[in-house]
Amino acid sequence: MFDKCEFITSTTNRKQSPNKSNLNEFVFLGRSNVGKSSIINAVTRRKLLAKTSSKPGKTITLNYFLIDDKFYLVDVPGYGYASRSKDQRVGFGASIEDYLINNPNLKIAFLLVDTKVGPTKDDILMYNYMMHFGINIQIITTKCDKVPTTLRFKAIKEIKQKLQNDNIIVTSAEKKMGINEIVELISNTNN
Fold first, then answer.
1. Which of 59, 70, 140, 128 has the alpha carbon at shortest distance from 100?
2. Residues in Cβ contact with 59 at an 8 Å cutoff, skipping those fewer than 6 apart
3. For the chain, how many helices (H) and strands (E)?
4. pLDDT tens by residue, 1-33
5. Burial of 139 (C-beta count, 10 Å sphere; 0-12/13-18/19+)
6. Rg, the chain, Cα only
7. Which domains does the chain have, with CATH numbers?
8. Taking the model in full, what pTM does it have?
9. Contact at 8 Å (CB) between 32 and 115?
């Protein structure tokens, strides 16, 4: 478990990163309102570390959280939020791209997909984009508690098929399902 979890700063590009010691970084990506902040809070066992909102599109910067003075969790703006201006969406895209490409500190990109919604076109585009650049991806399905148990297997199977990847961690931040798997993955990768 993580003892010290603190928000460090928000930036608009990687050049402003607080990570001057080249610590490992783990980024959480996904469409707006997929539950990135909730997963970060569940992983760190902190209710208010990352700001959550019922309104999509709340995160507009790269948010750095220093964990045990050993590594960073990074929350980036959600993609696919239609109420943002075209210029803002392009800006967010450029900011995320700048963060992902040629970032030697990035160890795992956690791609979050809503279990109920399944992979959107934007999710598939992001997945293929990261695959193209050889980024280490871990797919996380969120909010699985919102899908009835009888339909959950079918939903997960569909996500695996659409993304052509069987390596998925099924989670619910609310029910703490799958959270320990994410913590173990981060801990094992960071050693």
1. 128
2. 36, 37, 51, 75, 76, 77, 78
3. 5, 7
4. 799 999 999 988 888 899 999 999 999 999 988
5. buried
6. 15
7. 5-190 (3.40.50.300)
8. 0.90
9. no
The neighbouring-strand residues paired with 27 are 74, 109
Which tens digit of pLDDT belongs to each residue from 124-143? 999 999 999 999 999 999 99
According to DSSP, the residues that pair with 65 across neighbouring strands are 7, 73
C-alpha distance across the termini of the chain, in Å? 14
Q: What is the DSSP string of 88-157?
A: HHHHHHHHHHHHHTT-TTEEEEEEEEETTT---HHHHHHHHHHHHTT--EEEEEE-GGGS-HHHHHHHHH
**Residues in CB range of 83: below 8 A, 6 or more apart:** 56, 57
Question: How many residues make up the chain in this entry?
Answer: 191
